[in-house]
Amino acid sequence: MDETCEVLEIEETGRGFRLAFDIPSAFFSYIIGKKGQTKQRIERETRTHIQIPRMGQEGDIVITGPDKKGLTSAKTRIDVMVDSARQRQQFTHFVSIPIISKDVQNGFQDFKLDVLRECHGDRGVEESIFQNPAKLHLTLGTLVLLNAKEVTKAKELLTECEEEIIRPVVKDTPLMLDVQGMEYMNDDPGEVDVLYAQVRPQDGSSKLQDIADSIVAKFVSSGLMQKDYERVKLHCTVMNTLFRKDPAAGGVHGSQNSPAEKGMKGRESFDAMSILSKFEDFKLGVHHVDTVHISQRYSTGSDGYYACSASIKLP
């Protein structure tokens, strides 16, 4: 991490210098270390004193010392530890595009009934692995938001995305999608964990892909999101074997390195060969992309979709 790329608000005091900054309390233990050894090492090597709020309490971390260089070095080391620890946290929120028009929901219900009727008896195919139609969506990226300040920061970023990214691309033209065609995540159609519907703008443009990639890039640059792929894989999950054990999972995938994704190894896959043969081109319906959400994981709002921390409207 380049110590010169961030402008730090370092105050001069009668005894030297002081730097205060906010970090969620979930990361305090990483900075303190076993028996305080990590904190003590940073203090010793940077000739600073680091003040951390009591465990479980939110508040600023305060670094003091005789020179600015020591404060900057200590802050950089803490940032590196926090970035590493954040990647190991289960995500709390995700940026999503709801795909819940009545047309798509009705088409999904028809697809579900047809699959259960025509593919009954295929290994692993059962009602429990189908998505909740009120929660059909595209996941653009996942977020680890661990205190109110980080949620506020994410809200502000989404608002900036509306003005800087979305409006210049869509202008005043509604973005209409065809939700059609079934695909699977892995290489073997006989051993599938996730089956999804493809989405395509009706005008044949790359507008949706461009918007998704740009939103993710903005959130990644803020430090709130981890970049897993070069481009966002736009897909609407319709069947997911995670639902067998956890109906609240909602078809939202985190980083492959996250604790949640590592725990997916014990999943029971299903045989999708018959489904793909019979329903490969199935059309769920048409959807008008009119909202982008910051959605709360493991939640349900009053409309049946995920509880919304922030949202922006499209034409």
How would you concisely characterize the structure shown here?
The protein is α+β, with helices and mostly antiparallel strands and 315 residues long. 32% of the residues lie in helices and 23% in strands.
Total count of helical runs of at least 4 residues? 8
Report the end-to-end length measured between terminal Cα atoms.
40 Å
User: What is the string of helix and strand elements?
Assistant: EEHHEEHEHEHEEHEHHEEE
Q: Numbering strands along the chain, what is their spatial order in the largest sheet?
A: 1-2-4-3
Biggest sheet features: 4 strands, antiparallel
Could you name the ranges where pLDDT drops below 50 across 5 or more consecutive residues? Answer: 255-260
Q: Find the structural class using helix and strand composition.
A: alpha+beta
Total number of strands: 12
**Outline, from the CA principal axes?**
elongated
Computed Rg? 23 Å
Percent of residues in helices comes to 25-40%
What portion of the residues fall into strands of 2 or more residues?
15-25%
Q: What's the overall average pLDDT, rounded?
A: 91
Secondary structure layout:
Elements lengths: L10 E3 L2 E7 L5 H5 L4 H10 L2 E3 L8 E6 L2 H20 L5 E6 L3 H17 L18 E7 L4 H23 L4 E10 L9 E8 L5 H16 L13 E5 L18 H4 L10 H7 L3 E7 L1 E6 L11 E6 L2
Kindly describe this structure.
The protein has eight helices and twelve strands. The strands form three sheets. Strands 1-2-4-3 form a four-stranded antiparallel sheet, with helices on one face. The protein has a four-stranded antiparallel sheet with strand order 6-5-11-12, covered by helices on one side. It is elongated and about 75 Å long. It is an alpha+beta fold and 315 residues long. The longest helix is centred in the middle third of the chain and has 23 residues, at 148-170. Strand 1 (11-13) and strand 2 form a beta hairpin. Helices cover 32% and strands 23% of the residues. Residues 255-260 have low confidence and may be disordered.
